[in-house]
Amino acid sequence: xxxxxGMFGLGMAPANAAVVQSCKTAKGTITMSPGLSSKSTSDQKxxxxxxxxxxxxxxxxxxxxSYLSVLILKHANCTTLAKGNITFKGHGTTTxxxxxxxxxxVTYHDGSGSxxxxxxxxxxxxVASGLFAGKKFTAGFKINAAGANNGACTTTPFKSAPxxxxxxxxxx
Length: 172
Hints:
- The chain is mostly beta strands.
- It has one domain (2-171).
- The protein has two helices and nine strands.
- The protein has helices at residues 78-81, 115-118; strands at residues 21-36, 44-56, 65-73, 87-96, 101-110, 120-130, 136-143, 158-165, 169-171.
- The model is unreliable at 1-14 (pLDDT under 50).
């Protein structure tokens, strides 16, 4: 399972950038289909989704939202992803409580070395369209490899695991 987590990373907003929206908490599930194994060579559909909460200021968003990103990992397997230090790009969307949307271009990057670093994903990008268009987006989360489906990447393919934010998700 450690290998499946080696696909993402953590970003920081520039010190002088004014934060226009910050969500203190985000958590959810990462799923892969058809599922990663140590020998898989097929493309994997990766879905990262979950609620964002304690978002301030709440006037433009309603104070919470739901994040969704669907990506494709080409020719992925547990062995390759376990090495970490992997970067790839994709798109994400937050649908805010008030129905508005922010659509992102996102670069995901994970650490390397220990499992703890490989499980830690940083996200940097920009709001491409919708609410806050033109602003920077930074976020980070940690995949809970221990919470993956039983036997993931060892006796069965990795299918899903929970994740939670490592810092506030911000738009600035």
